[in-house]
Input
Amino acid sequence: MGLLVCNRCGRRLKVEQDIVKEDYIQIRKSWGYFSRRDGITQEFILCEECVESITREFVVPAEFSDTKELL
Output
C-alpha cells in the first residue's frame, strides 16, 4: 500500500504494516459529454474529517442510512 494523503487538507492517513487504520473516501470520476472536463478522469482521497466539513456546507443535506452488516 502506498502513501495515502487527503487531497483537501494534506494530512497523511494512518497506515501500519500496509493496513489503513482510519477510513476515507476515494472518488474516481471519468467526465463525459456535456462536461467541461470531457475525456478527463479525476481521482482524489478525502479523510473523514474533510468529508464531514464539506457535507456540512451542503444546501441539500446528504442522506444517511444504517449499514446492516459491516464487512
Observations:
- The chain is about 15% helix and 25% strand.
- The mean pLDDT is 93.
- Residues 15-56 form one domain.
